[in-house]
């Protein structure tokens, strides 16, 4: 049986609440994603606490600095045995190569290309003339050639990216179950669609963490996969 690809994004400020939620749904997820906010607030201690659940840990730290510093940071988190760590592709080839070399054999190093919070004007303002889509493709290619395991991409892009990078490891956030509230979003991608399109990891936060019944939500997502 395939491992459950759902990583629960624990974007909760309190460690006890994060732990309780993860414990509740732990039988119906494949791993736990801890972001920069969690890591800055709870550090190694927080990660150790969540490790007790026995699930793989994804440290979404989006590292971006000079190669030497990023490699040293990778070594410093090595003791936490993360299954996945994110870095910024915009840090350049040498930074990505050194980060990958410093990660353990069992750690996937995955690149963030262009943050979805940035639009055309934001890129122009920082001197990037390409549009966000073209820039993301360019950085994905750079990440591939630098020897990274894969990239973070949207459910809309993952099919195309997978065709270009057959053995890539693709982390897909921003998913919404079909029966969930979509608000005014018309182009939602469901966990199942993302998986069918080649996603390796499905990052899911609020559809589980803010559900009235998180356990039922996690179970029903699992049942669609
Ligand atoms: O929206 P949801 O709560 O499911 O988001 C889960 C995680 O995915 C969050 O940690 C969020 O920061 C991340 N995310 C992302 N890029 C997006 C959308 C969400 O990294 N475009």
UniProtKB/TrEMBL annotation:
Catalysed conversion reaction: orotidine 5'-phosphate + H(+) = UMP + CO2
Function per UniProt: Catalyzes the decarboxylation of orotidine 5'-monophosphate (OMP) to uridine 5'-monophosphate (UMP).
Annotated source species: Novosphingobium colocasiae
Entry keywords, A to Z: Decarboxylase, Lyase, Pyrimidine biosynthesis
Pathway(s) it belongs to: Pyrimidine metabolism; UMP biosynthesis via de novo pathway; UMP from orotate: step 2/2
This protein's record includes keyword Lyase: yes
UniProt EC number: 4.1.1.23
UniProt-recorded name of the protein: Orotidine 5'-phosphate decarboxylase
Lineage: Bacteria, Pseudomonadati, Pseudomonadota, Alphaproteobacteria, Sphingomonadales
Key word RNA-binding present: no
GO biological process: 'de novo' pyrimidine nucleobase biosynthetic process; 'de novo' UMP biosynthetic process
Gene Ontology terms: cellular component: cytosol
Family under the similarity heading: Belongs to the OMP decarboxylase family. Type 1 subfamily.
PROSITE patterns (UniProt xref): OMPDECASE (PS00156)
Subunit structure and binding partners: Homodimer.
């Amino acid at each position: 049986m395939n491992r459950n690809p759902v990583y629960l994004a624990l974007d909760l400020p309190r460690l006890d609440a994060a732990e309780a939620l993860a414990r509740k749904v732990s039988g119906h997820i494949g791993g736990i994603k801890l972001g920069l906010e969690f890591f800055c607030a709870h550090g190694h201690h927080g990660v150790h606490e969540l490790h007790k659940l026995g699930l793989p840990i994804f440290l979404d730290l989006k590292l971006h600095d000079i190669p030497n510093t990023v490699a040293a940071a990778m070594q410093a988190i090595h003791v936490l045995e993360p299954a996945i760590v994110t870095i910024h592709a915009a840090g350049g080839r040498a930074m990505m190569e050194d980060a990958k070399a410093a990660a353990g054999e069992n750690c996937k190093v995955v690149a963030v290309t262009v943050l979805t919070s940035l639009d055309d004007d934001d890129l122009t303002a920082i001197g990037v003339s390409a549009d966000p889509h073209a820039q993301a493709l360019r950085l994905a290619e750079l990440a591939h050639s630098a020897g990274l395991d894969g990239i973070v991409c949207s459910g809309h892009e993952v099919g195309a990216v997978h065709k270009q990078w057959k053995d890539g490891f693709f982390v897909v956030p921003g998913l919404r179950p079909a029966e969930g509230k979509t608000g005014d979003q018309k182009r939602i991608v469901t966990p199942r669609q993302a998986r069918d399109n080649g996603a390796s990891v499905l990052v899911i936060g609020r559809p589980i963490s803010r559900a009235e019944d998180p356990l039922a939500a996690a179970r029903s997502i699992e049942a669609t996969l």
